[in-house]
Design a protein that fits this description.
Largest sheet: 10 strands, mixed
Strand order of the largest sheet: 1-4-5-7-8-9-10-11-3-2
Number of strands: 63
Radius of gyration: 48 Å
Distance between the termini: 85 Å
Number of helices: 10
Mean pLDDT: 85
Structural class: mainly beta
Oligomer: single chain
Length: 1072
């Protein structure tokens, strides 16, 4: 990383000197206030006596604040008269009486305009505000900026190491607040997303032959996104707010001797093209939308979204990259937070003008950091941190470090400040803010008439200023009252450049009421005025009769009836009422707080007769005051069981369960489960567990459990307890206080439609019904017990009566476990003991131990599919069929070689899709199943009952058009032919076979009378389902373990098939 260039000695000395002297704003205040005593007293803020932090709903937001009412008439006079100098006096909690000395500031260029996105070709009719800068009187290191717009007054004040915010409470018509930023109960959340590698565009400029010009002016183009326009209530309100912000930004640059003006503001009254969502996205979208084409030297977008600010670094005179974005916070809760916004906007523009963060390793001439606030806040650097200062500067992250913060009076600090000044003073693309004029005069202020006057005859007094470069020797002054009867006055004299003089104009009579006065100049030195924009000034005044005022020595806003004074306007220290209860104690006045000594009253105040009284506090309306309440929220007078605890607070512990647990959800929307309580039930609590989230990785695997708990309170109103995310916690302990009618838990996936699930504990609550006697603890009162000493909740639930012949065993109302005797074939032998399921075990004509229904001898024959193997290519399908003679039944065969390729090149993908159908004994076509190669490679097919034919069909199950050839193998087909049928009669007699033991429990032996080259042995059950298939090769004997058949007690058929011979079928009874 390269170091910042060391600057010329001139700027280094300048920065050292500036730290030892009053700040630049203080110097301007001193010059302006010492040159005249015509200062407008702007006592705009009146202490609000009837409201508190609690009643204005900001007690949870700020520790301490001062509340005021704004004198709207006086503010409008200031906006109308636009006096050059203001003095504002008001008390501030924790500070005392604060007086601001303010002068009118030039924040905007002469050709400044406001435009709107819906009509960008024309200027928007916007009424400019009045913008003032200054200091707190007596503190030459302080800064103050105040804006008066058509809607409100805004401002910020920095003094004695503290930043004060001044503004209107959110959504309050005339409620104003001043508070210290350090009294906010939250620190500034704003950060800066500048990446010093990614966003550093420029290089330190080389010294040029151009003369450095401290008068160079940075003109700023500003866009307001649609969120702010909508949030503020319209274009005018949004521009009022943002113009005030940039006035307050401009004072910080002016205090660094850097000229800064706003040239144009564009408000997006339509949907803007900036969608984010990240701060970096907003910056790039703003840059690309402008494409370097805007009315200014730099461009800035302000909005409500993102995570702070971001800007390109060192981009002055680079139109395309000369942009920045600030996510501003106009308020926190109901409280205005101008200082947060000023901080982030000033910081990001500082990046544009060349400065990097003070914790970056580019300073001090040795690539080290100025401070270590960045690393202390979790933002590392490459040079090992840095020292923590007592207070940070504008380009630092010290606002993120507890106990440090930003000191606006320190400005940018010596090194960043020198860097920015060098960039601005030497920039070839900048010019001074305005060119000087030669013959230019104007009325810079109306001294009289102004405000309230009781004089019947008015002598106008105005301030004449020479704005031109030549000496002013003559000028014509024209003035008018209420827009009528123009009067001219020819002034002569000698005024040097920027000098002023007071001119008394001829007097005129006036009447009671409000009036307007305007004075203007023309033909300075007998020639045309070169700048008519500064020719005129106006004022408004109220002619009235004298009024009686009363001394307010204790400053509580109430006057001493014993100290009246008749005057035309309200003198300092006097008020227009005589209601003070104690002129010597500022805490005793009507509406002031007091203590009446009654524990049962609250909000004790002095009434109009100066008596202290409060409001009897009985929140639950039971006639017992809150301070003495035994059971808050309930009627202390109702105690049914006489235990000293009112019924409302008496808890009868009870437990319940949600109807659905666990709670599962998939797809759109949400799934929910509820529980309804009896009237009077209260204080439910339960736990939701199993919350989780996976927000990274494969999008198909992502999920975020999100649960919302709602309930209906005792009054029938729906309430939201809260919404909780598995991204933040794995469980939620829910506890609801008070009477509850029902509670509902809803579950959704906050990311996508994937399935999610959470678990719900039982619900503990206080029942409105006292507990009853329950000797067996089953939750059923003894008087209602069906089965004493038994859990009644088990009645109707499954159990096991230990009887093999019964099914569907349940606990009955007789408290016994019993089931239903299972005998599907109705032969009196239960299913568990059945030898021949479906038949009558009692009928065995041949006495062989196998009931006649299952004694079905047949000859097993072998057939083949044609074609075999079965192949297929292209679209459609291919099939192979085998047919059987009449009377054949119980068919079985195997399909081998199913396959699939579902990955890789799409053209090579396929899935073998096999469908088996057959015609039964009645000729009906029946589907025996469909099988795919992505799930299995082999299929054993067994078809019971008469079969005429079987067909196997092969096709592509992936896209219906395989690139290659599909193929499967079909085994020999065995079926059962009637003994002596034509088919079996064509075969040679089979060998004799001996099978033993019968019944068999462990092993089955098969002995043939002769050795055979090959014989196939297939074992099936009586339904034709294949249990095993093996081959005898070059042998006459086979041993079969019974356990491998996987059956309990039943009859099996052993089919021995020798090529060219009749099949041998033997029955064996398996017993265990």
């Amino acid at each position: 990383m390269k170091p910042e260039k060391t600057f010329i000695l001139l700027f280094m000395l300048w920065s050292v000197m500036i730290q030892a002297q009053p700040n630049q704003i203080s110097k301007q205040v001193s010059e302006k206030f010492n040159s005249t005593d015509r200062v407008f007293d702007a006592d705009l803020l009146k202490i609000e006596r009837t409201k508190t932090l609690r009643s204005t709903n900001i007690e949870s937001t700020v520790e301490r604040a001062s509340l005021y009412n704004l004198d709207l008439n006086l503010m409008n006079r200031i906006r109308g008269d636009s006096p050059d100098l203001l003095a504002m006096n008001f008390p501030v909690k924790g500070y005392g009486q604060m007086e601001l000395q303010l002068f009118k500031a030039d924040v905007f260029t002469e050709d400044f305009q406001v435009k709107i996105a819906s009509d960008p070709s024309n200027s928007f009719a916007y009424e400019m505000g009045s913008y003032y800068w200054g200091i707190v009187k007596g503190d030459n290191q302080s800064i103050a900026a105040v804006t008066f717009s058509s809607e409100e007054m805004t401002g910020f004040i920095y003094t004695a190491g503290e930043t004060y915010n001044l503004g209107k409470l959110n959504n309050k018509e005339n409620d104003y607040v001043i508070y210290k930023e350090s009294d906010l109960k939250i620190g500034s959340p704003l950060g800066c997303d500048v990446d010093d590698t990614k966003h550093l565009i420029g290089q330190r400029m080389e010294e040029s032959s151009r003369v450095s010009n401290p008068n160079n002016c940075v003109n700023m183009y500003v866009e307001i996104d649609n969120d702010i326009v909508v949030g503020k209530g319209g274009v005018t309100q949004a521009v009022n707010y943002v113009s005030g912000v940039f006035s307050q930004v401009a004072i910080l640059y002016a205090n660094e001797s850097i000229n800064f003006q706003v040239s144009e503001i564009l408000a997006w009254d339509t949907t803007d093209p900036y969608t984010g969502p990240s701060t970096s996205n907003y910056l790039n979208q703003f840059r690309d939308n402008l494409g370097g084409n805007y009315n200014g030297d730099l461009a800035h977008l302000v909005g409500y979204q993102g995570s702070g600010g971001i800007a390109y670094v060192d981009v002055l005179c680079n139109g395309f990259y000369g942009v920045g974005y600030s996510d501003i916070n106009s308020s926190y809760a109901l409280v205005p937070t101008y200082s947060w916004t000023i901080e982030v906007v000033t910081h990001e523009i500082g990046h544009n003008l060349g400065s990097r963060h003070t914790h970056d390793c580019v300073w001090n001439g040795n690539n080290t950091a100025i401070d270590g606030c960045g690393p202390a806040a979790g933002y590392g650097n490459s040079c090992g941190g840095g020292p923590l200062p007592a207070s940070g500067t504008i380009m630092s992250y010290c606002h993120l470090v507890g106990g440090v913060g930003i000191d606006f009076n320190l400005g940018f600090g010596p090194q960043p400040g020198d860097l920015i000044r060098s960039e601005v003073y030497n920039a070839t693309c900048l010019v001074p803010c305005s060119d000087p004029t030669t013959d230019d005069a104007g009325i810079s202020a109306v001294i009289q008439p102004s405000g309230i006057t009781c004089d019947a005859t008015i002598t106008p007094t105005v301030e004449l200023t020479n704005f031109g470069s030549s000496i002013l020797t003559s000028v014509t002054i024209t003035y008018t009252i209420d827009g009528a009867n123009n009067t001219t006055y020819n002034w002569t004299g000698s005024l040097t450049t920027s000098a002023t003089t007071t001119v008394n104009l001829p007097s005129f009579p006036t009447t009671n009421g409000n009036h307007s006065f305007e004075a203007s100049t023309s033909t300075p030195n007998g020639v045309a005025d070169e700048d008519s924009s500064n020719d005129s000034s106006s004022s408004s005044f109220d002619k009235q009769d004298p009024q009686t005022y009363y001394s307010d020595a204790d400053g509580d806003g109430f006057g001493d009836p014993a100290s009246p004074l008749t005057a035309c306007s309200q003198p300092n220290g006097y008020v227009d009422n005589n209601l003070d209860c104690n002129p010597n104690d500022g805490n005793i006045y009507p509406g002031g707080s007091c203590n009446d000594g009654e524990v049962c009253t609250t909000n004790d105040t002095y009434d109009a007769n100066c008596n202290c009284s409060g409001t009897f506090q009985d929140s639950d309306g039971d006639g017992v005051c809150d301070a003495n309440d035994v059971c808050p929220g309930g009627d202390d007078n109702i105690d049914s069981d006489g235990d000293g605890t009112p019924d409302f607070c008496d808890c009868n512990p009870a437990q319940a369960s949600f109807s659905t647990n666990p709670l599962n959800h998939s797809g759109n929307g949400s799934s929910s489960t509820s529980y309804s309580f009896a009237t009077g039930d209260k204080d439910p609590s339960f736990t939701i567990s199993g919350l989780g989230a996976k927000v990274n990785g494969n999008p198909n695997n992502r999920f975020e459990d999100q649960v919302t708990i709602t309930f209906v309170d005792g009054g029938g109103s729906s309430q939201t307890y809260g919404t909780f995310s598995g991204n933040n916690q794995s469980s939620v302990n829910v506890s609801i206080t008070g009477e509850v009618q029902s509670v509902t838990v809803s579950l959704t996936n906050a990311i996508n439609n994937n399935a999610v699930s959470v678990s719900l504990s039982s619900i503990d609550y206080c029942s409105s019904t006292p507990p009853c006697a329950d000797a067996d603890g089953d939750g059923v009162c003894d008087v209602d017990d069906v089965c004493p000493n038994f859990d009644d909740n088990l009645i109707g639930t499954p159990c096991d009566d230990n009887e093999a012949c019964t099914i569907n065993d349940i606990w009955g109302n007789d408290c016994l476990c019993a089931g239903t005797f299972a005998d599907a074939d109705g032969d009196g032998v239960c299913d568990a003991d059945d030898i021949c399921p479906g038949g009558d075990d009692n009928i065995d004509s041949d006495g062989d131990g196998i009931p006649d229904f299952c004694d079905n001898n047949c000859d097993v024959i072998t057939s083949n599919f044609s074609p075999d193997p079965l192949s297929h290519s292209g679209s459609g399908n291919s099939s192979s069929t085998v047919s059987f003679p009449a009377g054949n039944r119980d068919v079985s065969f195997t399909i081998n070689g199913l396959d699939a390729v579902t990955n890789g090149k799409p053209d090579n993908r396929y899935i073998d899709l096999v469908t088996v159908t057959y015609n039964d004994g009645n000729g009906s076509n029946i589907n025996a199943g469909t099988f795919t190669g992505d799930l299995q490679n082999n299929v054993n097919v067994s078809i019971s009952g008469p079969v005429q034919s079987v067909t196997v069909t092969l096709e592509d199950g992936y896209d219906g058009n395989p690139a290659g050839i599909l193929s499967i193998d079909l085994s020999d087909v065995t079926s059962c032919a009637p003994v002596g049928s034509t088919v079996s009669g064509n075969l040679q007699p089979g060998l004799e076979a001996t099978i033993y033991p019968n019944p068999a429990s462990e092993l089955i032996w098969i002995n043939l009378e002769n050795e055979v080259a090959r014989a196939q042995v297939t074992i099936t059950n009586l339904l034709g389902q294949q249990l095993m298939r093996r081959n005898i090769i070059s042998s006459s004997q086979m041993m079969i373990p019974v356990r491998e058949l996987g059956v309990d007690q039943q009859v099996v058929l052993i089919h021995i098939n020798i090529p060219g011979q009749k099949s041998i079928v033997k029955k064996v009874l398996i017993v265990k």
